[in-house]
Amino acid sequence: MSFFLSLVEWDMFTPPKWNGFGNYITLFSDEMFWKSLKVTLLYTAVNVPLSLIIGITIALLLNHRIPGLSVFRTMYYLPSVVSGVAVSMLWVWIYHPDYGYINYFLGLVGIDGPMWLQDPVWALPALIGVGLWPVGGTMIIYLAGLQGIPSQLYEAARIDGAGGVQIFFRITLPMLSPVIFYNIVVGVIKALQVFTEPKVMTNGGPNSATLMYMLYLYRNAFKWFKMGYASALAWILFLIILLCTILLIRSAASWVYYEGEVRGK
Amino acid sequence: MSSLTVSSLSGKKVKQALGKVVIFIIVLIGALAFVLPFIWMLSSSLKAESKLFTIPPQWIPSPVKWDNFIKSLTVLPFQVYYRNTAIITVSTIIGDVFTAALVAYGFARFRFRGRNVLFILVLSTIMLPPQVTIIPRFILFRWLKWIDTFVPIILPAYLGGSAFYIFLLRQFFLTIPRELDDAAKIDGLGPLRIFTMIILPMSKPALAIIAIFSFLFNWNDFWHPLVFLSSEEHYTVALGLYSLQGHFFSTVSLLMAAAVMAMLPCLVLFFLAQKYFIQGVVITGVKG
């Protein structure tokens, strides 16, 4: 159905016109399509690795026995409980060039903060920052993964004379790799479809610097009622997601380590 | 764990203790950074408008303007938006939990031809993002004249619901011993009674997790209401916030007060059901 729609030209008010692969051909010469694709891929390429690194780092820190652990865990996790328009509104105020606290703190250390959401260069990094706030959600998964690593492995490694760095790369990371894999797959799929933040915070601006793919699709479908063209956009996005997932699954064989006995079903 | 096994060299112990202090300080600073947006939001929501624009920022509002909250709820008909959101959220939760439980029960307990193929097919829809199917759904619901009603948002939960929830529940059902089913069968219970009298009562934690996930998703959902609802008396809280942001009379304190109110149910739910949250996230992440 969706694929059929992508082959027609239809504004929903007049009967659909058969367009063959015309919509797809138009796509390739559509500057805004390429722009939105670039912005979205850039967002994904930065957001996913960063949330991986930050998530694992916090999990490693919280894997120590320090006082107030459960309180800290809650504090890191809390942002992932909330989402949507309210969060986006909050960050618009935090990024306020003159009276937001980010530029205030930057000012304290002598940095003249940028205009953030109004600045074509800094708007996308600002959105990436918002995307990292709920990193506690993945952190909890890493923490559970860390706690599932049997301590004998560490002890054996220590007896063999392995140092901290070696233990991290030879034991912790491989043992954590199934969880990392899961989080990367979910993270990529989510990041490619980000919509609420760019819609509420920047509406794609300034100068299309944050024109995410879903936002462009939304405009085509529900603002300009180009249903056929928007369906073609949806199909391209689906293919990109499918491709990313297949590539990730293919690559998994070489770096994801599964313990034999855990894989039951 | 290591302090007991490691030799009692005092130098090493001091080093370890020092390491812990450093970790504690890093964790503390990070944790403060993560909750600072909440504090900032709450502080801004209680300020007089003139106190918002000061350098350095005023962290503790004085005077405290509680009436920002009343104003933020009445400047637009938010009581209607909250009612709408509650209707959508509650009906969707019931649909999600009920459908997922029924389908998962089928996959977990019955052998039938093509079961595995069907299960993989269901799972593969996780990869098919809802945004991609939005256009055919929109056209279908428009043809049925259901645009600008809650039906397009609620109905999908009753027609199969979410593959993710089905998967979660099936995994949980598989951990319930089959002997219980068999015993019930000997006592003359049919599959439906087994489902309602044995499987469901034993799965309360898993059902709670799904209800929580479903609540959080629907409460915060912006995409579906934005696409399917158009008249203001059908707005949800998310749409209300969005239109509040665009209004000329809304001030930063009003926006922040409205944001606090919108987030509050999620935060309260989290503190009430913290155990299930962590469990749910871990089940999906580690076992998925």
What does the secondary structure layout of this molecule look like, with pairings?
The complex is a heterodimer of chains A (265) and B (288).
Chain A: H1 2-5, E1 8-9, E2 17-18, H2 22-28, H3 31-62, H4 69-77, H5 85-94, H6 101-108, H7 123-132, H8 136-147, H9 151-159, H10 164-192, H11 196-202, H12 213-223, H13 227-255
Antiparallel strand pairs in A: 1-2
Chain B: H1 2-5, H2 10-45, H3 67-74, H4 78-109, H5 115-124, H6 134-143, H7 151-154, H8 163-174, H9 178-186, H10 191-202, H11 204-220, H12 223-228, H13 237-246, H14 252-272, H15 274-287
Helix pairs in contact in B: 2-14, 3-14, 4-8, 4-11, 4-13, 9-10, 11-15, 13-14
Tell me what you see in this structure.
The complex is a heterodimer of chains A (265) and B (288). Chain A is built from 13 helices and 2 strands; from the N terminus they run H-E-E-H-H-H-H-H-H-H-H-H-H-H-H. The two termini of chain A are 34 Å apart. The longest helix of chain A has 32 residues, at 31-62. A two-stranded antiparallel ribbon of chain A has the order 1-2. Helices cover 67% and strands 2% of the residues of chain A. Chain A is globular, with a radius of gyration of 22 Å. Chain A has one domain: MetI-like fold (Orthogonal Bundle). In chain A, helix 8 (136-147) runs antiparallel to helix 10 (164-192). Chain A is an all-alpha fold. Chain B has 288 residues and is mostly helical. Chain B folds into 2 domains: 2-67, no CATH class; 76-250, MetI-like fold, CATH 1.10.3720. Helices cover 71% and strands 0% of the residues of chain B. Chain B has 15 helices and no strands. Chain B has helices at residues 2-5, 10-45, 67-74, 78-109, 115-124, 134-143, 151-154, 163-174, 178-186, 191-202, 204-220, 223-228, 237-246, 252-272, 274-287. The two termini of chain B are 30 Å apart. The interface between A and B is large, with 73 and 70 residues.
